[in-house]
Amino acid sequence: MDGAPDLFRLSYRKIRSFLTCRKQYWFRYCSGIEPPPTAPSPAALVGIAVHRGMAVLTESGHEELGRRAIDAYLRMPDHTAVGPGTEGYELAHALFEAGIAAHRELGGRDARAEVGSWAPWRAGGITLWAKVDRVERTSQGGYRFIDWKTERQLRVEETDLQLDLAHVIVRTVLRIPASETVESVAWNLRTDERRVRALGRADAKAAMQYAAALAQRMRTCSEFPPTPGPACGWCEFRSLCEEASTDVGAWFEEADE
Questions:
Q1: What ranges make up the beta strands (E) of the chain?
Q2: pTM, whole model, 2 decimals?
Q3: Rounded mean pLDDT of 93-117?
Q4: How far is 161 from 158, CA to CA, in rounded Å?
Q5: What is the pLDDT at residue 3?
Q6: Which residues are paired to 234 by β-bridges?
Q7: What is the average pLDDT across 41-54?
Q8: What are residue 136's DSSP bridge partners?
Q9: How far is the C-alpha of 107 from the C-alpha of 15, rounded, in Å?
Q10: Distances (CA, A) of 117 to 19, 43, 212, 226
Q11: What is the 3-state composition of the chain as percent helix, strand, coil, each rounded to the nearest 5?
């Protein structure tokens, strides 16, 4: 299934960017400007390593192969910030051990890792992209997908939106019957916090309608004001954005019109 290039392409990242900061959205999706090269943060490298290990574990069922995949990634010459002997190295392996415990607890069958696809909807004028960390059938014959998390805490609203959009992809790829619900899980391997949503076909339809409504706003948007805030800390365009470091004193001292 292709991305239906004649349709407006959406993803969770694109939606989140539009909702968080219009200037970031403009940089990423409208400007054509490439972000300045920056090294991934240690937290990002740890997250990637753990997801690689979990994918290998899901596909092979062998815990040691997952450990080796993580170790090989962390030992890459460009990843010295999380190499052996660092806090990041120890954290990645600790999170993977938590992932092993989660894998054993799930006990699913026919598990697949890194399932990504498009969900085109011509009536809505959009096509949605998402990638799901793990998809499987439950021991009772139902459907389930997992989104592994490695941050310090789950952000509830953002997590729910991710699950809602990923659920559309799972239903599309697996051709899940209309009467079946899908156990949709965000699982934080750092805290063992879990966010579980039982989503049906009506929920998938609502998610696509929401995405189509946002797409209409994106298409017609002509002003892209910045919204300085916590998201600036991990925006790849921060060095090109004056507002990211604006001191409120600048507008305190502006002359009244």
A1: 8-11, 109-121, 126-137, 143-149, 182-188, 194-199
A2: 0.90
A3: 97
A4: 5
A5: 57
A6: none
A7: 97
A8: 144
A9: 33
A10: 23, 26, 18, 31
A11: 50, 20, 30
- Reading the block at residue 237, the tokens are 């365009």
pLDDT tens, residue by residue, 127-146:
999 999 999 999 999 999 99
CA dist., res. 197 & res. 86, Å (int): 36
Place of tokens 């806090």: 87
- Rounded CA separation 17/29 (Å): 9
Cβ–Cβ < 8 Å for 185, 144: yes
| Structure tokens belonging to residue 58 | 């899901």
The ranges assigned to domains in the chain are 1-31+108-233, 39-106
Number of Cβ within a 10 Å radius of residue 181: 16
Cα–Cα distance for residue pair 249/257, rounded to 1 Å: 17
Q: Is 107 helix (H, G, I), strand (E, B) or coil?
A: coil
Q: Please, are residues 221 and 133 in contact by the beta-carbon 8 Å criterion? A: no
Query: What was the pLDDT predicted at 168?
Result: 98
Only one residue has tokens 């998610």, namely: 207
Say if CB 91 and CB 107 are below 8 A apart.
Answer: no
**What pLDDT, on the 0 to 100 scale, is given for residue 12?**
97
| Nearest residue to 93 via CA among 123, 73, 122 | 73
The two tokens of residue 4 are 């239906």
**Which of 218, 200, 223 minimizes the C-alpha distance to 126?**
218
The packing angle between helices 156-174 and 201-220, to 10°, is 110
- Determine the Cα–Cα distance for residues 137 and 120; give it in Å rounded to an integer: 24
3-state secondary structure of 7: coil
